[in-house]
Specification:
By secondary structure, the protein is mostly helical. The protein has 8 helices and 2 strands. Strands 1-2 form a two-stranded antiparallel ribbon. The protein is globular, with a radius of gyration of 21 Å. The termini are far apart.
Length: about 190
């Protein structure tokens, strides 16, 4: 809508910004349709768009050394089962479910050998602290783990976490707030 002030200057109503999740969902749907038709580059784009999220979900549940292999496993499963996805708009949530299932499967498998603790191989104090923080996050209640890893490790913002995980923005804020409080307590640090 346009109006004129003093007959010279046009005044326009500010455009309402579009919901970025709607745009991402429709773009995902187009890529999914192309991937179903055999376009490998379309699936590659889906991988690029969602790999951080899958990485973060897995990092919240399995040892650091296993995450990269499991990320690839998740996308291989997704590629094989893409035809079974009923609602393309639910792709991100579907991937999260596959990632959680892969993490559960990982913990069910017997291990042939025991692993050395991760801190033995590192002399970098920052890496040691990062691994300690990650272990502290993993010890938190399930509700906070993924949200904290997606925010602190993968660098995703609250609205993006909400859009990708299916949580409401308010739930993400609450999970981040409560999770950070518990994490600070676990690490023995007071708020700066």
């Amino acid at each position: 809508m346009e109006a004129r002030l003093d007959g010279n200057l046009p005044i326009r109503e500010a455009a309402v910004p579009e919901d970025p999740t709607v745009e991402n969902t429709s773009e995902d749907a187009q890529l999914i349709a192309a991937a179903r038709d055999g376009d490998r580059s379309a699936f590659g784009k889906l991988y690029e768009r969602h790999t951080r999220m899958v990485h973060g979900v897995l990092l919240a549940h399995v040892p650091f050394a296993e995450v990269d292999d499991l990320v690839h496993d998740v996308f291989l499963v997704a590629l094989r089962k893409l035809g079974s996805l009923r609602e393309p708009g639910a792709f991100a949530g579907w991937l999260i479910t596959i990632a959680r299932n892969r993490a559960t499967d990982f913990h069910r498998k017997p291990r042939a050998s025991e692993e050395l603790p991760a801190e033995i191989g590192t002399t970098d104090p920052e890496e040691y602290e990062a691994r300690a923080a990650l272990e502290a996050i993993r010890s938190l209640p399930e509700a906070y783990r993924e949200t904290l890893v997606l925010r602190l490790v993968e660098g995703m913002k609250g609205p993006e976490i909400a859009a990708r995980t299916g949580l409401t923005p308010a739930s993400v804020r609450v999970n981040l707030h409560r999770g950070m409080k518990q994490l600070r307590e676990k690490l023995g640090r007071e708020r700066p």
